[in-house]
Amino acid sequence: xxxxxxxxxxxxxxxxTVAMVGSLILPMISSQVGVGESYLETPQPxxxxxxTMPPPPDTAAIDxxxxxxxxxxxxxxxxxxxxxxxxxxxxxxxxxxxxxxSEVQSVVELRINKNHAGLSDAESLSDFLDKTWLGHTWSGYxxxxxxxxxxxxxxxxxxxxxxxxxxxHLIARQESWIDNGDIYSxxxxxxxxxxxxxxxxxxxxxxxxxxxxxxxxxxxxxxAYFDNNDKHMVRFPSxxxxxxxxxxxxxxxxxxxxxxxxxxxxxxLASEDEAMDWTESWRSGVKARSVRAVEVAGASGYQVSYQLxxxxxxxxxxxxxxxxxxxDRLHIANIRMPDLDQDLLAVDPAxxxxxxxxxxFRLLPDLEVNIN
Length: 372
Known about the structure:
Blueprint: H1 3-30, H2 36-40, E1 66-69, E2 75-79, E3 84-90, E4 94-101, E5 106-113, H3 122-128, H4 131-137, E6 143-152, E7 156-165, E8 168-179, E9 182-191, H5 195-208, E10 210-211, E11 222-227, E12 232-237, E13 241-244, E14 251-255, E15 258-265, H6 272-281, E16 286-296, E17 299-309, E18 315-324, E19 330-338, H7 355-359, E20 362-363
Antiparallel strand pairs: 1-2, 2-10, 3-4, 4-5, 5-9, 6-7, 7-8, 8-9, 11-12, 12-20, 13-14, 14-15, 15-19, 16-17, 17-18, 18-19
C-alpha cells in the first residue's frame, strides 16, 4: 500500500469516528436548547395564603346576663353571648377563668391574684405587671408585644398588646386593679379588625365580676360543688372528685378515703333530739353520738356526729351539718371516714383537717348560675 493510500485511509477513519461521536452527543445538546437559562433560575417559594379575618362580632347581640361560676366557687363572671368556657384554673395564689369564641377568634379572661406584696396603688401595680408576669400569662400564644400602657383614673392599669397565635395576628387589651386587697386583671383578645368590639367586651367583663361573700378568706386552691336547684355549695381540696351529681339530687364527692354527700330533704327539725332521731333513721347501722345547734352564714340548724357500722361489721365515723333553708327544706352535708371510731364533735379539728370541708357548706339562695 502506497503512502498516499495510507494517508487517505487514516483520514476516512478519523471522519467516521467524529461522525459516530457526534451522533451520540448532538441529541443530548439539542435537548437542552432553550431551557438552559430557566434551569439555572432560583426556584421561588409558593406564598402561604394570609389567614382571613372573621367579621367583628355584633355587639348588639351580646349581653352578659349568663353567669359563669368558677371552679373554685369564689366568684362568678358574666359570660358574653356566644362565648363558652375554655379553661379555668386555681392555685394557692391565682384564680383564672377563660371563655372562648372561635368563630370570631376571641378570648375573654379574668385573673384574680393574691396580693402578697401588699400593693396599694396603680403605680406599684403597674410595676408588678412586668414582662415576667405578662410572659407567664401569654404562654399559650406564639408571641406578644406590649404596645401601650396607661393608668386610668389613678386606679386602673390599662395595657394594649399585639398578639400572635400561629399565623393569626390579634389585638388585646388588659385592665388591672386592686379590690379588697386582691389583684384583678380582665383581658380580651380579638381579631385585628375588632378594636371597637374589644372595648365593649372588656367593659362588660370587668363590670360583671362578682365575688361570693360567704367565702371571703377561703383558700384559692379548692374546688366547689354548687347545686343550682337546691342552692347550696360545698368546697373541697382540688384533688377530690365529684363522682355522682345532678341538680336537685344528692351529690357525692370523694377523696383521701373521705366520702362527702350533699343534698336536701323535705324535713323540719325543731330540736336537737329531733336531729338525733332523724340521723339514726337515715340508714340502718347508724348511731348518733352527740349534737349541737349551729348557725352558718345566717342559716340555722344542727350538727350531729354518728357512728356507722357496715354489714360486715366495719366502723366508720361521720358528721352531719343540717341547715334550714329559705325554701323551708333541710339542706344536708354529710362527711364520713371509714375505719375510724371517734365522736367528731369532740375531737380537735386540727387533727382532722378534712372537717374543714364540712365547714364550707353554705346556702346561697340568691346565686344564679347558667354555666357551671
